[in-house]
Design goal:
alpha+beta; two-stranded antiparallel ribbon; Tscrpt_reg_LuxR_C; WH-like_DNA-bd_sf; Arc Repressor Mutant, subunit A; Sigma-70, region 4
Length: 75
């Protein structure tokens, strides 16, 4: 799975890191541990980023969704 963050240019580097991990489902505590920050700082960065406005797009291949190649019509 890949994510695309639209509007990332509005965010600081730390906000980008926090957003990427949070949008992939990481808990605030896990993000804090990974980045060496306190959970309160992670929450502040995430809220600040959300207020700046960004969009997350999840990019998945059909294989991941269990949608293989289309079957050919048998004539």
């Amino acid at each position: 799975m890949q994510i695309e963050i639209r509007g990332v240019e509005k965010l600081s580097i730390r906000e980008r890191q926090v957003v990427a991990l949070k949008e992939m489902g990481w808990s605030t505590d896990a993000v804090a541990k990974q980045l060496g920050l306190s959970p309160a700082t992670v929450a502040t960065l995430y809220n600040r980023a959300r207020n700046k406005g960004y969009q997350v797009v999840i990019v998945m291949s059909g294989d991941v969704l269990g949608l293989g190649q289309p079957e050919e019509d048998e004539a």
